[in-house]
Amino acid sequence: MTALDLSSPVAVVGTGTMGQGIAQVALVAGHPVRLYDAVPGRARDAADAIGERLDRLVEKERLTGAERDAARARLKPAEALTGLADCALVVEAVLERLDVKQELFRALEDVVGDDCLLATNTSSLSVTAIGGALRVPGRFVGLHFFNPAPLLPLVEVVSGFATDAASATRAYETARAWGKTPVACADTPGFVVNRVARPFYAEAFAVYEAQAADPATVDAVLRESGGFRMGAFELTDLIGQDVNESVTHSVWQSFFQDVRFTPSLAQRRLVESGRLGRKNGQGWYDHREGAERPAPHTAEPADRPPYVVVEGDLGPAEELVALIREAGIEVREEDGGNGSLVLPGGGRLLLTEGQTSTELGDVVQFDLALDYRRATRIALAPSGTAAPRTLAEATGLFQALGKKVSVVGDVPGMIVARTVARIVDLAYDAAARGVASEADIDTAMRLGVNYPLGPFEWGRALGLDRVYDLLGELHLREPTGRYAPSLALHHHVHTADAGEGTPS
Questions:
Q1: From the candidates 123, 244, 264, 357, which is the catalytic residue?
Q2: Does 301 map to a domain?
Q3: pLDDT above 90: percentage of residues in the chain
C-alpha cells in the first residue's frame, strides 16, 4: 500500500492552529487542499493565514515564488462538507469532544467516497471510540501531528481496534511522503508520547510538592544536568497549564486512575487559580512584561578538596574520576566499596540510588547527569546528619569541575534519576503491551518532546538493573505502586541476569 497520489485532494476540517498547520503540510507536499470549518468565514480566513505563512517561507528561501503561487492555487476553502466529496483523505482537527467528532465523521461518511481515508488528529480521545460511530470503521485512523505541525517532524499513526492494516499503512506512507517521521502505535491512552512523557512532569511536581526544590531549580537541574531541552515547569507554562493538566487527567482516567499517572494537586491548584502559563501571563513563572525570571538555587563558592578517595565503581558517574584528575585534584583509588567518593573530612559522596541521604549517615548524594563532562549543574542532597564540612567539600569538588551546584531537599531519587527511571519503565511497559516498537518509542520521544535520548537508549546506557533497583528503592519508600517496576522491566532485568539474553 503506497502513499496517496499527489493529485488526490486532501481535506482538513477545523481551521484552528493545528488544522492550519496540517493543511500547510499537505499543501507544501503538493496536494490540492480543501479547508472546512463549521463557523462561516473561518475557512477563508485560514486560507489567507496559510497564504501569509507561504509568503514568509519564500522570504526565508524555503519556497520559491513559483512554488508558493502553485500552492496557493491548490488551496480552496469549502462552504459545506459537500465540498469535500472528491477528497481521498480527510483529517479532522476540531474540538476535543467525542460527541462532536463522532457527529462530524458520521456526516462525512455520507459525503465522501468509500475509498476515502478518514483521520483524526486527536491527542487525548480514543481513536477506537471515535471510529465506533462509523459504518466502515476500518478506514478510520489517528494522525496525531505535533504543534507546530509544519515544523515538528513526528506523526503518531494510531490504529484503532477496527482500523484495517491497509488504512494504517496508507496513512503511515502518506505522512512519510509529506516529509514527516511517522511512528505506528496502538490506540492506548496518550498514544506513545503523552503516555511515556507523564513522569517528566509528575516527578518535577512531586519534588516541588515535597518542598525539596523550587520550580526554577528543578528546571535548571533537568536542563543542565539531565540534558532536557526545557524543564517541566517552563514547558508546561509554554504548553498551557490547563492543556497539560487536562491531558494528564485524561490519561489517568482512561487507565482507570492508575496511580502511575496520578495528576498533581499543585498543578490543579495552579489551574484553578487561573494561572495558565505564557498565554495569560502567569503560570509557574511570571511572564508579564518586565517580570524577572527567578534564578535557580546556586551554592556559594566553596574550597576544593585536596584529594578524594574513590571506592569501587561509580557506574554511570565513572567519568567523574577523569574529570577530578583533570581539575588537578588528587585521586586515591581503593578496591571494593560501594561506589562512593570519600572526602577528606570522612564524609561520602554517592550517586543517588533511590534511598534518602539521611538513612545513609554522613553522606551527600548527587543526581544523575546525562553526561557528567558536559553537564553544567549538579544537584546535591545532604543527609540530615551530614557534617557541614561534608557538604562544603562536595560543593567545592563539583565547582572545581566547572559545575554549578544546587543543593536540594533529601527526596529519594532526587530529580533527574527518578524522572529518567520512570520514563524508562513506562517505555518498557508500553512496548510489552504492544503500543509501539522499541525503536518507534525512542523515535517518538526524541522527536515529539525533544528528549536527549530515547528511553530504551537511556535505559541501556544506565544499565537496566540500576534502573530497576532505583525504582525498587523508591517503591519501598512510597509503596503506593507509583514507583513499582513494571513486569516488562522485571522480565528484561532477570532475563539478562539469568544469562538468557540481553535487554533489547
A1: 123
A2: no
A3: 95
